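agent> fetching stored inputs for the magnesium ion docking request
agent> found them:
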Amino acid sequence: MSSLSTSTLASTPVIGRKKRDVAYLLSLGFLIVVVAAALLAPWVAPYAANAVDFTAIWQAPGAAHLLGTDQVGQDLFSRLIHGARESLLGPLALLALATVFGVTIGTVAAWNGGWIDVLLARITDVMFAFPGLLFVVLVIAVFGKGPATAIVALALAYAPVIAKFTRSLALAEMARPYVDAYRVQGVGGFFLCVRYIIPNLTPPLLGYLVVLFGEGLMSLATLSFLGFGAQPPSSEWGLMVQEGQSGIIQGHIWPTLVPGAAIAAVVVAVNVVGVRLSDRLNSRFER
Amino acid sequence: MIRAATRIAGMILTLVVSSFVIFAAMYAAPGDPVTFLIGNPENMTPERVAEVKAQYNLDQPLIVQYGLWASQAFVGNLGTSFQYHQPVAELMATRLPATLALVAMASVLFIVAGVGLGILSALRQGKRTDSTITAATTLAASVPSFVIGLLLVSIFSVQLGWFPVSGAGEGFLDRLHHLALPAVALAVGAVAIVSRVTRQSMVEQLSMDHVEAARSFGLAPAKLIRRHVLRNAWGPILTMVALVVASMLAGTVVVESVFGISGVGKLLVDAINTHDFPVVQAVLLYMVITYMVVTTLVDLIHPLLDPRIKAKDKKS
Amino acid sequence: MLLDIDNLSLTITTNGLSHQILDQVSLSVDAGEVVGLVGESGSGKSTTARAVLRLYPETAAVDGSITVGGTEVLSASRDELHRVRSSEAAMIHQDPRAALNPLRRIGDSLTERLVHVLGVSRADAAAAGLELLAAVGIRQPEERMRQYPHELSGGMLQRVVIAAALTGQPKLLLADEATSALDVTTQAEVLAILRDLQTQRGLGVLLITHDLHLAAAYCHRVYVMYRGQIVEELRGNDLFHGAQHEYTRRLLSAVPAIGHLPNSESRAS
Ligand SMILES: Nc1ncnc2c1ncn2[C@@H]1O[C@H](COP(=O)(O)OP(=O)(O)O)[C@@H](O)[C@H]1O
Ligand SMILES: [Mg+2]
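agent> prediction call returned; pasting tokens
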């Protein structure tokens, strides 16, 4: 399901230009703050990530605990900041992995055609036969739970998508006259791909990757929530939501709301920035 | 006819390959398949080993194993759960009604809300309503369904006490009552997708000459929308709705976990946690088949909505 | 006068930029009269015709007056506007393939105005439709009624569109490049049919075209439009000889003599 959503959402914004500028700057600023907080976590977080305090459980936000505490008195604000590292690095790692595979396969498929191209098409078909996160769930069922498995599994699911996207971009790029000009001069295919074609694909690909980042973050959080991704004592945001779940029935909403809102806010901000970025990069690309 | 045949053949091929992936996945696991299928080393009894070997024909070549498994699955025999010592098909049959009810309710919700908001958005194109709808639905789609689910429970079950906290309920009305919040949680993400597609498709149609022609002879706005815009915009909307409904079967995994509904999705999560691989395979197979069949059906039905494609198809 | 446009000005604002499309346009069409409106592409001909049925964006600023059969269109009430659109004036669009809903049968589109606007019973509407199809020279009308637009040729479709325009028994036809999308032979046939119908029914026709030969041959009077203004009004016979305005002369000098460029009509504006 998630693979459907963000890609359709990222196109055709109808909001006016001015409002979009404001939204873009706000989002960018927010993301910078989040990344900075993640990088500086040990210094900016008021408490350690797992500082248990049984005298202060399930506190509402207040002076001592900015965003309240959870069922064992851990400071939610501090956990959020510490957890930002894993929550943001996870999607980053998965995209890096998927991009290396996807771009390589996609370029080769476009350049060589032949059986590699056919194979890519078949693999994508099979991948798309698994709705939502089911392929990932299968990989986890086989290789066991844990953040590494979740990341690799998601990377495997994303690689064909990126490969397909790269392939279509590369095909368009290869139709440009300069490619033939170099070929006639006897420039090798590998050199041409690495030196010219792939660099020229980067701008549109980058915009797409930013959108995939938001999607990857949601997917990883979902897997952690199900218990398949990050494991305790991590304070990954999806896992934080899962741990907060027990408090809901007793009326304690903060341990769920805080990490849940963090996920949503980052995903929204990333999408706003991504749409804007790909607009810009693409217009520069076309010139 | 030819198009339909190729499409169905393609579907069957993809089904064969993906079911093979589901089956052969156990060979990718570290260690030998017997150890993997038994899961917990404590269960490594001779009877258990025999049971596993019998169920999976592990002494045969892989392709034969797959053939036997697939042909058994084809006649409804999905093996026996190692956890419950019960046929997987039976397990699924008891779990299926709750899941299907959940998907049906969520579908009604997201179709009504998504198509409705999309129409409204298209008719107010470029105005405040339009941008508000886009912003709100996009925002809602950025909140993971498990977060939405938990917030709904917190507000409507715990604070207000209007809905039960968990379970699927018995009987029609009780079930509606139990599944209302889960259905909302499942539907929210889809509203953005469907309203976006509806809007886009309608906007495209609104700019058509025949729409203006109909307006020029005085066709009332409501009829104009119905006869010239919606009627022609249905194709992409229907396709997207079907795709979303089909992939919702996978989305229930999360929502059923949030609301403690013992449906097929919860069964899958539990099976992974207990290393009950026959169940994992069966549930995945069922979800993939449903998804493939629905998407293929839509592909086949789509042309029937448009006489132009039908004509082309006849000629080919 | 059947149609009277008096000092019509129309300004559209998009993205904060105002764009005056019509500037003090005045023209008239009498019953039984064929009046041409010529000018280069983008001069505002279509906008003028559409304004007659009040088909401009809500955001347009409109000034002046348009009366159709005595009804002031610009300030008309909903009912009045509905009457004008449904049974006093009808528009024939340039591209018949686009003007008909591709998903509906010819019969359905043909009778849509009668059934869904004027409240005629389906059976009566079908009978009227058949009669009109015969009147525009379509053979086997029953069969055509059951077909879809993609199954008919462009010339056939334009006849259907003309027939559909006549279903409300209008007194005024607004033909906006109604034959430009057709090849020359078909164009001549369709024009002949239009002419016959016009004389039989005493229709007033505002014929928009960028084909000056056509305008000269077909119209009693011709207005020349340039950049949103009417720059000249001439009798049809005088078009090629009596032009006073500089723009009209340039326009005329750009036109090849008949027979040299038979396809100039198919260049859509
Ligand atoms: N809805 C609109 N919004 C903005 N500009 C328009 C609109 N409709 C027409 N125009 C502009 O008005 C001018 C006249 O157009 P039109 O009446 O179609 O000319 P013609 O039919 O003579 O070719 C053109 O420059 C066109 O771009
Ligand atoms: Mg025009």
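agent> quick read of the result: The radius of gyration of chain A is 22 Å.
agent> awaiting further instructions
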